[in-house]
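Example complex used in Figure S2.
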Amino acid sequence: MQATAKMPDVRELALLDSCVTLGRSCLAGVPEYLTAENVLAVMDKYDIAEALVHSNEARLVQPRWRGNQRLLREIEGLKRLHPVWVLSPPARPDPAGARQMVDEMLSAGVRAARLMMGQVPPLHWMWKDLCEALEARRVPCLLDFAPLRQASTQCVPDSLLLDELLEVCLAHPALPMILSHHSGGLGLAAATMPLLYRAGNVLMDITSVVDYWRRLARDLGPQRVVFATGMPFYEPAIFIANVQYDEVLDLPAKRLICGDNLRRLLAAAR
Amino acid sequence: MSEILDNWRAGQGLPGVLVIDGHTHVGEWPHGANFDTVQEMAAGAAAVMDANGVDAACVMAGGYMWNGTDYRLGNDILMELTARLPQRIIPFAHVNPNDHLDAVLDELQRVQAAGMRCIKLLNAYQDYPGDGPNLMALYRFAADRNMLILNHSWTNQEMDRIARQFPSVDFIFGHYGSRQDELLRELPNVYANIWGIGSLGFLERGIRGVGPEKFLFGSDAFMNPISVGIGLVVYADIPDRHKRLILGLTQARLLEKVGALPAALKEQYKL
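Predicted assembly (541 residues):
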């Protein structure tokens, strides 16, 4: 039937997907992967205007700089794609090294980082140097809790991991941190929403599917939520219209969630 | 070109399309409740359906499906909800097969007397096999009384046995997965609700391999946005006539067969 109220045209919302993995993957159950050659056509099919893209290789294979650098070469000139570097902290205390890592990233035109907290647990004493360097430059960070060797970005960190994360978030209040592809069919860990209510610099994306993101947007504001699909591990069609057709959020709120929040965060990285 | 997709993209919902969500829940879910009272359920469900262009929803009450709870209370809630929205809520009653068989059958008779024609199972969450004796008795009841059955999941072996033993009953997998493809092709009385979080292209691959007639739109609303399931169908690279089947026509046929299709929909869409 006809929708009783006219919703915005999805193209008007200028979707910016915050979680897209590029790279050939050999993964059972995921026969279609995304590369620089096909991703724009896939984005066009699903009305996605822009995307933050990270390297499959950088997530799974050390040293990460190889995958990060390859990503830049592969997407050069593709203005709708914004590179994200996959990072984990240096093993030894090294504030200068962490600052240099962030300098290199920004000099290369990379304005967002994907922090591998599923592979290196979010213990503040391990992440302190890197988070300080990122916070000083206001680099938005996507938090990846997928465990070691898991190809998919989908994850459901447990409450104990989130307890550790809270300390990191509160220690770096000017560092935007996005719970990226935190998604579980039966819901997320009990500490997830409590963490979001307590750490104002933490955002979540809409791949949580269940009504967490809607509750967050309605309770604390649409500036705390960003759009994502998690493709190719998730079918993007699942997420395209969820903000567009929400019956409570107004148009300005929808625009923020669908892309303007992230655009603002990327622009603020210096 | 897809008129259905064009309208959906433009924010108009699905004008002229019968849309029945074949898999929804109201009430409590592991993370919390989506509606607190039956009044809220009715108002909230209607608001979501209106906003998305959904005509009706097949609904199960949440919260009372876990071992240790009284499933009859969930069915009571469902009856109250249906009474408030009789043309838009299609109730799917629930029983826990861990209960005594007599109690299970009593409840089936009770809900059927109250007008329910459809059953939703979740034995996978209840540590009970899909072909256990109490469920085999339930399938027999459904066959004798012409009822429709939706289940969160069966194993392929269970479904193969059950569907052949009860050929007059239509069985619906609650969540589609490619492992079901062979059964969907071979068994005329087996269907799949599309709702599931698969990888890029998963539903299109399934439709190509099985055909559109065996897939039913669903979403696990109202915990999820109902558009999670609509998006899967409208963005699929299939003709509009196939989208119409999946969005509502096939579900309507199955519901009509057991006498559960709301009269208003039959009238409106000339079914």
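Chain A touches chain B through 49 residues (CB under 8 Å). The beta strands of chain A are 15-22, 48-55, 81-83, 85-87, 113-116, 141-144, 177-179, 202-205, 225-226.
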